[in-house]
Amino acid sequence: MTQPINTLPAIALRGTTILPEMIVHFDISRERSIKAVEAAMLRRQEIFLVTQKDPETENPGISDLYRVGTIAYIKQVVKLPHDLLRVLVEGRERAELLSLVQEETFLEAEISGSTQEGAQYADTVREAMYRGIHGLFHQYCMESGKVSRELAAQIMNIENLEELMTQISVNISLTWQNKQKLLEAATLEERYEVLGGILQNEIEVFKVGQDLQKKLKLRVDKNQREYILREQLKLIREELGEESVSDMADEYGKKLEQLDAPAEVKEKLTKEISRYRSMSGSSAESPVLGTYIETLLALPWNSRSEDSDDLAEAWKILEEGHYGLKEVKERIMEFLSVRKLTKGGKSPILCLVGPPGTGKTSIAKSVAEALHKKYVRICLGGVRDEAEIRGHRRTYVGAMPGRITAALQQAGVSNPLMLLDEIDKTGSDHRGDTASALLEVLDPEQNSRFNDHYVEVPQDLSEVLFIATANDIQEIPRPLLDRMEVLEISGYTENEKEHIAKDHLIPKQMEVNGLPKGSLSIQTPALRKIINLYTKEAGVRSLERKIAQICRRAAREIMENGQDKVKVTTKNLDKFLGKSRYSYMMANKKDEIGIARGLAWTQVGGDTLQIEVNVMPGKGELALTGQLGDVMKESAQAGISFIRSIADQYKIGPEFFQENDIHVHIPEGAVPKDGPSAGITMATAMLSAIIKKPVRADVAMTGEITLRGRVLPIGGLKEKLLAARYAKIKEVLVPAENRVDVEELDQEILDGLKISFVDTMTDVLHRALSK
């Protein structure tokens, strides 16, 4: 008997099939499904639930849906976070999907309901079906154990065949595909065959599972047998005199007796050795514990090296190893002097900050040599895992001590010189903050009891001389910087680079490249040309590479042409190094309107910065180009505001700033530029362009400007003045508050430069603009 055609809102279910008489809840998130529920609630709370063939299909059409679904009654709707709806439904009856009336707002299906009548089957057939399905369900319950006794008894007491099959379908664990097969079974006989096949298959699966379980048990028993055999093998090895756990424990005990360590360390080791002795050799924990004991025995708890207190020898080593660096050398000599007077004392924590190639790492080696200390280096560049510093806890697989403990083990003494290289390049992520882990290491008040997670016993780091290196002090976290004494290493002058090349780099590279002494000579003018035109850096790393290149070319000429000596001059330098790569932006030949020369600090030294300004008819806009950062943009805004505030002094009418555009440009636009030191340069160039008065070509300036025209101090003065010298600048305008910095500079840097100190923009304009 076929029911009349009906139209109901529909939901396409993904990976779920609802059967009649099932009460179940499911979550929906698709907008069409939510609107279908809303439409059903406004009607009779009836909805058609049909399963889509591919759960991954996002917007299914009629071809993507099965043709048989279930008419269900919505009992409850609950709103959940993230635009989810939880719907509780009760399956009422099967129905066939005929078509989709609408698909845009929500799915609305035209369906035809159907019922199966059992009277068409003879009583004997129905009885046979009942007994068959009843027996299969009973066997299913016995084999699987997934249905509770109470529920199983309740279902098996049902006498009606249709009701029995319905309750079995609803209450056993089925995949949505099997549920769909049951739903599509049109007649009682088809439902019996599908359900019987499913139960029979599940019973077979459980039987196979039990067989596998028996085989697994046999394998476990085999493992037990192997364990007994291994124990017997161990006894045989002991009888043969081979090494065993007991022997290793005895060896550890002898090492412990000879170990010079604090009482708590010895107590910890005694306990761990005792535990190791009682452990089976085949135990997985045995090698882990053995490694831990060996690590503790290898650490230099009370082992110290004798530091040198010969001040004369120390000064000689520092002077021979490095040219210049007066401040660093004097600080090391102060440390030695205090240590000699106090017979010990806490070691300082020094941080050498400077551009790459200025010799920060090699200074640490020279200091270790001067003090007769063991030297170990820890590179922190890119380290993000806190466990790299503090160590891994022993509960983790592959645990190991942190880098500090490993460095102590490598040094073999408790008072080495430990170099923390690239401390400004540490990072942090979900594994912890490396810089925060270093706080305990570098705090003199805490590092006497440093706790490594792997070692689990406090270590004394107070006698370790820590020296850190960094390129940029701004990248070091403030709390970490607060625990260190900063020594700034500025870039080298041309004269210093020349001395370093002659005394250190050329002899070193000749030895590295196998050149005999006297077989290569580089004339001083050629060396200066290499420094100025082939390298552009604060340090000497690129200079050393160029010298190495010359040495390799010289070695080839000696071997190929049989020359005894190779001489490098300014004339044949191109033959060794090719054409020059760099040139400093020299001072302009004549005074020009709207062009001012500034000075900039970079990570590889100082440089000059030419600022160009044009004024053109327009709408009063300020254009800034040349890859300027936010700080420099703010400096330009402050400069134009200052100029407008003093416009009356230069007879600039108020309408000028409404009728003209000002364009500020810094050449080399592809290079990002930022920093608080170009304010007075931009203001000078802008005023020059507005009043049509040239800026002196032989003047360079550095300093920040305020809205009231004050000149603020800047940093990186040494590098900036060196850049001015290379560019042949005659006069440099420096903020008056930087007078102390200038007085601390060597006369070699100031030779040929006139330093003029300025307090306000009035002073700047008076000196910078042509008379």
From TrEMBL:
It holds the Pfam family LON_substr_bdg. Coiled coil: none annotated. Induction: By heat shock. InterPro entries: AAA+_ATPase, ATPase_AAA_core, Lon_bac, Lon_bac/euk-typ, Lon_lid, Lon_proteolytic, Lon_Prtase, Lon_prtase_N. ATP binds at G354, P355, P356, G357, T358, G359, K360, T361. Residues 590-771 form the Lon proteolytic domain. Belongs to the peptidase S16 family. This is Lon protease. It comes from Blautia caecimuris.
